[in-house]
Design goal:
The structure is a single chain. This protein has four helices and eight strands, in the order βββαβααββββα. It is globular. The strands form two sheets. The protein has a four-stranded mixed beta sheet. Strands 6-5-7-8 form a four-stranded antiparallel beta sheet. Helix 1 crosses helix 3 and helix 3 packs parallel to helix 4. Helix 1 links the parallel strand 3 and strand 4. With 272 residues, it is α+β, with helices and mostly antiparallel strands.
Length: 272
């Protein structure tokens, strides 16, 4: 955290592929690492022409760098960016204590430096029955929730808890029964039938955002019985969010210690 001096708060998030296939050294087959930067601007007063708001107005924006995906993007905002930004706003709105900042606004801007979107991996998935596309965007949303939470804390905005994102998918291999994977890589999961991403508050045991795709009812064994339900999928996504929270807490502690040490050096008379 604290990477952008001009912003009220900032954070950087990086997640490398954990599977051997995704971590291949070949540039043609290598899955991209998820790299996100987040800046928070505010809280700052709203314009005088704006109507009175008793709570803090939250604005979220997600933009992809032109080189972020395998398919080079233009500078025109894409519909998928607005869709993910809407989900991110829902996840963060339940965390902020907006009553303490009346007639004020805060902007959360996330830049995807590297990440695997829905292209090209979801083209085959969308054309086949029982599979789901959009896993790349769901993984990006999970990282956006976590990095935005760190940047908001770095900005000193009051929150009820730390919110973290988690992703879980149901994968069926040809020779094995359906299995659940946490924080998957879309490029090496060909049999993805259902996916779930959540924004989770561990201390309050609350979910601020829930986005699912696919159909768990399509997963049946040879006798026609359903082998995987919706609730186990959500529980696994919660476990992924809890694991991300452990890393987030350590990062915030380390950043706080650095700020305290810097303040002691800059203002030694206030520390005595």
């Amino acid at each position: 955290t604290g990477l952008t001096p001009s912003a009220s708060g900032s954070a950087y998030f990086e997640l490398e592929p954990s599977t051997p296939i995704a971590a291949s050294k070949s540039l043609a087959n290598k899955a991209p690492t998820l790299k996100l930067t987040c800046t928070v601007h505010g809280p700052r007063p709203l314009p005088r022409s704006a109507p009175f708001s008793p709570q803090l107005l939250l604005s979220t924006r997600i933009k992809f760098a032109p080189f972020a995906d395998r398919q080079r993007r233009g500078y025109i905002p894409h519909a998928s960016e607005r869709d993910v930004a809407a989900h991110l706003e829902t996840a963060l709105r339940g965390v902020l204590i907006g009553e303490r900042w009346p007639k004020s606004g805060v902007d959360v801007v996330i830049t995807v430096l590297e990440g695997e979107g829905d292209d090209p991996w979801s083209k085959d998935q969308l054309s086949e029955c029982g599979r789901t596309g959009g896993l790349g965007m769901m993984s990006i949303l999970s990282g956006c929730i976590t990095v935005a939470s760190a940047a908001i804390i770095d900005a000193g905005i009051d929150c009820i808890d730390l919110v973290t994102g988690g992703v879980a998918v149901i994968v069926r291999q040809p020779t094995t029964s359906p299995q659940v994977f946490l924080d998957p890589c879309p490029s090496d999961r060909d049999e993805i039938f259902a996916a779930c991403v959540i924004g989770y508050l561990q201390t309050r045991d609350e979910i601020t955002e829930l986005w699912t795709k696919g159909s768990v009812m399509a997963l049946t064994d040879g006798k026609g019985a359903n082998t995987m339900g919706f609730e186990p999928l959500v529980d696994q996504a919660v476990e992924a969010a809890v694991a991300a929270r452990l890393v987030l807490v350590e990062a915030i502690k380390e950043s706080t210690e650095v700020k305290v040490q810097k303040s002691q050096i800059d203002y030694p008379e206030k520390c005595c």
